Amino acid sequence: MIPEILVIVAVAAGLGLLVALAGLGVMWLLRKRSIGVMLAVVAVVTVVATVAGVVAITLKMIIDGTPRDIVLSVVAVGGLVGLGVATVLARRVVAASRKLVAAVHAVPPSGRFVPPQGLPAELDTIARTLEQAYEHLRVGHERERALESARRELVAWVSHDLRTPLAGMRAMAEALEDGVVSDPETTARYHRQIRLEVDRLSGMVGDLFELSKIHAGALRLSRERVGLGDLVADALAGAEPLARAKGVRLDGQADQAVPVEADAGELSRALRNLVVNAIRHTPGDGTVWVRASVENGVACLSVADCCGGIPADDLPRVFDVAFRGEAARTPNADGAGAGLGLAIARGIVEAHEGAIDVVNAGPGCRFEIRLPLSA
């Protein structure tokens, strides 16, 4: 004889399995409906499985009369209570999900998402994730707008910077061609001026090409172990003629050993741009200081001048493309370029995993390049 308890378990398990399969089928049919409907199906499946098992057991045990009615009544009440709790929970989940959807629809044009409060843990996690995603999108859109604005300004400014010397060169070339200018002194001066403008335009085209490589991520660095002291010496030697012509003193100092892993040519170009920029903005009899040192375990290159300081409103824009700190775009007598030098310096430094910054200090401002020390 099979024990009676095994029969009861087998009957209850069989009925429960049939009800569960039926419930899974219903949930598959309603898979695109609300979560509340699915929770209600789960509650109904639980109640039906329990009632079916109890009914089968009571019939098997031949429970009649009042005991059977009591058992079935208790099961029915328990099922109704479970169904009611499931309904309340489903309504809360549906309300929370609708609140989240409403918050997404209410995102303003600025792109700042405000997650609703009082959500269940899972929906709150989704809301926080959406907040982060919207923040990344907002920052990306702002950066895109800033780059587009910078691109338009660059096109306008460079077009002007190219048009002005080209117009002068054309006028001088026509004057020489038509014989309007014939005396040797004026002819020689025109030739010198044309050569100066050609050199300036060539430098501008080179800067634009370098900047395009930086923005396109195509700047290839040939890293090697170099000492910043050598870079300081080379930068000062290259800028000496410009400083002497303007009456600016150059002062350089470097710690005994400041090794970095860098592309010597590119990093020299960045430092040279900073030194030339400092000389151009330092009045005669002023001094430009260049230092190479180690600070807090980081290699530091600093270039200080006597420019009188940079206006606070212009400090955040110093490294912007084509920014020259003035509205006029007329080439200066000292051959100042199109305002690309500092932008190129920033791109080169960042390509070396470094940082560049500027602060007002003393009689002028100080540009600082910070790079990882070589092991």
Task: Describe, in short, the structure shown.
This protein has 375 residues and is α+β, with helices and mostly antiparallel strands. It has helices spanning 4-29, 35-60, 65-105, 121-178, 184-215, 228-246, 264-281, 341-351; strands spanning 224-227, 249-254, 259-262, 287-295, 298-304, 355-361, 364-372.
**What global shape is seen?**
elongated
Query: What's the SSE pattern?
Result: HHHHHEHEEHEEHEE
Percent of residues in beta strands: 5-15%
- The end-to-end distance, rounded to whole angstroms, is 83 Å
> What's the Cα radius of gyration?
39 Å
Beta strand count: 7
Percent helix range: 55-70%
Rounded mean pLDDT score: 80
Estimated structural class: alpha+beta
Largest sheet: 5 strands, mixed
Biggest β-sheet: strands ordered side by side in the sheet: 2-4-5-7-6
Low-confidence parts: 327-331
Layout of secondary structure:
Layout: H1 4-29, H2 35-60, H3 65-105, H4 121-178, H5 184-215, E1 224-227, H6 228-246, E2 249-254, E3 259-262, H7 264-281, E4 287-295, E5 298-304, H8 341-351, E6 355-361, E7 364-372
